[in-house]
Amino acid sequence: MPNCYNLISCNNTLYPDILDLCHKGAHPFDGRVVYINEGIVDPTKTYTLTFIGVDTCVCSEYIPRLIPTTQDSCAPSYGIFKYVNCETGVSRNFGFPVADPVNLALRVDGTCDCWLFSGEEASADELITVYTEYNSCNECLETREAELCPSAERTIGYAVRVNLPESPVPDRGFSKCCYTNLVLADISDTDEYKNDFSGCYFKRETPSSTVVFKLVNTQTLTEYFLNSDTYGIYQPFGGVQADLSYYIVEWRKVLTLLGVGTYQIKKEVDIAGISVDIFSNTYTLKPFSIDTADKTIRLDSYMDGRLINIDTDFKGSGYKTSVRLRGFFGRNERSFEQDNIAQRDYNLIQNTMSSKSTYQFQGLQIPECITEEIWNFIIFGNELVISDYNKNNHSYKYELIPVILEDNSGTEFFVLDRAVNINLQFTDRRQNSRKINC
Questions:
Q1: Average pLDDT, integer, range 257-282
Q2: Which terminus of the chain is less hemmed in, N or C, by CB atoms within 10 Å?
Q3: From 2.40.30, 2.60.120, 3.30.700, 2.160.20, which CATH number describes the 294-438 domain?
Q4: Is the Cβ–Cβ distance between 160 and 206 less than 8 Å?
Q5: pTM of the prediction?
Q6: Is 403:391 a contact under the CB 8 Å cutoff?
Q7: Phi and psi dihedrals of 137, rounded to 5?
C-alpha cells in the first residue's frame, strides 16, 4: 500500500498544487519545503510535501525527484538574498534566520570568499548566522588578506591553472655524445634542398603571458632579437591561432648576416608573473656542400592540427620545422598489383596495374634529445618531406620527397652507448603510379 502525498504550492497564483502523489513507504522529506529536480528545474517553484495517509488516494503519479530547501516554511521568518562572489562571479542565495545584513558586502566567518549583495530571492541555498559586513568588495578583500586568509584555513578557491614549460637539457654542443646538430645553408642558392630551417613556438595559457624569441651565438654570447623576418619567419600572437606565437629560423638568412658558428634559439617566457628562459639544442651552422652534407638526411615537418598532449593547436598556422640527422634514406622497394579480367576462353586481360614505393629511413647514433623531438612532434606533421644527401645512394633523386609514415622497423639500442639508431618505413604521399585500361 502506497503512502499518499500532496505537493502544496508556496504560491498558487503562479503555479498550482500537485495532488495525489504516491511513494513506497514514508518519504524522507515529509513536511519539508522542496523543489522538483526533474525536467526543467526551477528552484523558485517551491512546495511543501504534505502526507495525507496510507492508501487514501488514487495515485496520479509517483513523487518526482525532490531537493529540500533550507526554508522552514513557504513564508520563512528570515530574509533570503542573492549574493555574487566578488572574485569568481558565482552566485549563491543566503538565508539569514538571525538578522538581515545592512551593508552591501559580507564574508561568512571561517571562510575566505567575499560576497556582494544582488537582490532578494524566494529560497536559500545556505543559512548563515555569523558573518562580517563590509561597504564594498574591495574593503572585504583587503581586510581578508590582512586578517584571516594569509595564514589560516582555506575554503574552495578558483584559479587559472598554468603549466610552466620545461626547458630541454642543453646539449652544450653535444660534446659528450660526439653528436653535431648540423644545419646547412647556401648563400648563393635559394633551393630548399640546400637550405635548412628550424622552428620554435610558444602557446600562451593566459592573456598576460609573453614570449621573446632570440638567437644566441654560443661562442660570443651575442643575442639577436627574433621579432621580425630578418632571420626567418615571425608570427606574433593574434594570428590564425590567436594564442600561438612562433619563429622559424631560416639558416640561409643567418649565414648571410651572421656567418657560420654555433647557435641556440632562446625563448624568454613570462607566465603568470614567472619568468623562464628556455634554450633549444645547439645548432652548428655551416655552408652547404656535397661533402659537408654527405651521410645525412633531413626530415621536414609541416604541422597543421592540434597536439593533445601539449594542448597546442597549429591548425592554419603555417608552422614548420626540420631536423637533419646522420643516416640514410632510400632503398626503394617496389610492390606491384595487377587486376586482370578472365575471358570466357580463359585468357587474362590486364584491367589495372599499379606500383607502390616503400622507402627505408635510418637515423644513426641519435641522442635522446633529438629522438624525443622526432617521436613526440616531427612525425605528427600533416605533411612530411624527406631529403637524402648520401653520395653513395643508388639514386640522387631523393630531394624533398613528400612521404607518409607507414611503419616503425624498430629502434636499435646499445649496451655501451646512449645513442640509438631509428628505422622507419615511408611511402609516397601521392600514389599515382597506375595504369587503367578502359
A1: 91
A2: C
A3: 2.40.30
A4: yes
A5: 0.61
A6: no
A7: -65, -45
